[in-house]
Amino acid sequence: MKGLVDTAAMVQAASFNATFDGRTQHLRAGRVTWQWFQAFGAEPILGRTFLPEEDQSGAERVIVLSYAAWQRMFGGQHDVIDKTLLLDDKSYRVIGVMRTATSLRSSVAVPPAPHASTGPKCWSWTTPTSISTPLGAIGCTS
Description:
The chain has helices spanning about 35-40, 65-75; strands at about 10-20, 25-30, 45, 60-65, 85, 90-100, 110, 120-125, 135-140. With about 140 residues, it is mainly β. It has one domain.
């Protein structure tokens, strides 16, 4: 198996109540490790994706928007980078917007570390579907 996987990433499904412009909306989210974007070759059209240090406990809360969420919540404004979005009453700084064709199936992506909580945590681990035999696993910790 050596050499088969160059990059691996983890994603955990989540959901948030997002508040912006005085409105609240329920969003599907993905808590993704910083490697996720590299593993899937996903490049933002605005801003950037997560840095390794943003995937650590105590890091600033940052968020990457899907193209659809950017259009819906911010009207496609190009000055969205560094704007603040409230997710479950916690401030997140927008750092990027993804292209329309991306593997991000959620409205937003956030790093997992700032959301550390008690109780079980379940993750799915995958490799990009571009390799001939995608690898994956699901696991939970308590």
